[in-house]
Amino acid sequence: GAGVSQSPRYKVAKRGQDVALRCDPISGHVSLFWYQQALGQGPEFLTYFQNEAQLDKSGLPSDRFFAERPEGSVSTLKIQRTQQEDSAVYLCASGQGFSGANVLTFGAGSRLTVL
Amino acid sequence: QKEVEQNSGPLSVPEGAIASLNCTYSDRGSQSFFWYRQYSGKSPELIMSIYSNGDKEDGRFTAQLNKASQYVSLLIRDSQPSDSATYLCAVNGLVDSSYKLIFGSGTRLLVRP
Known about the structure:
The complex is a heterodimer of chains A (115) and B (113). By secondary structure, chain A is mainly β. Chain A has strands at residues 5-7, 10-13, 19-24, 31-37, 44-50, 53-56, 65-68, 75-79, 88-95, 104-106, 110-114. In chain A, strands 2, 4, 5, 6, 9, 10 and 11 form a 7-stranded mixed sheet that branches. A 4-stranded antiparallel sheet of chain A has the order 1-3-8-7, with no helix packed on it. In chain A, β4 and β5 form a beta hairpin. Chain A is globular. Chain B is built from no helices and 11 strands. Chain B has strands at 4-6, 11-14, 19-25, 33-38, 45-50, 54-58, 61-66, 71-76, 85-92, 101-103, 107-112. In chain B, β7 and β8 form a beta hairpin. Classes of the chains: A mainly beta (115), B mainly beta (113). The interface between A and B is medium-sized, with 26 and 28 residues.
């Protein structure tokens, strides 16, 4: 596609519910990242995929967070038993390469509000 | 110490002035540096990348990198009200995770008409 597409754009969940956030990266992009952005803060790294391989999940806050990219394209970030502190914008970004000079394109984000 | 530091602002400048945004980083091994612009409620968009010491110009934007002092800056000449946004500095991570971009918390810029 022309850009990185994320859905849903907005999600309201009751505490304890499970949520799934979807990312459709730019076609052919090897790298895919998930970031979490709290209000007034910069994006914080969550996890990184190179094709279908999850090479780094060091930023996932707890074992309630799980991400997958089974076919090396679409990715899903799942949050189980949501808590209020999970409320944030979840940004997906993709890039053509995988080096430090890789330029990332961000999606519009999924804003999660946990009540 | 946070890995990428930025003054949160807001930095307020009059229309037509030069806006100067600064960023320091802690990892001497960082090789790639980026400036992203983020309008309120929108996603970050890349405006400049810089990889070697010195200045890099693109239109009204100039990025400056000084690896010895571990700082990178962004100058915006002839600032316009449409430049009002949060500017995020991003640096690639340590050698074994150089793919990872680490962001500062951003500087909010306000350009007054």
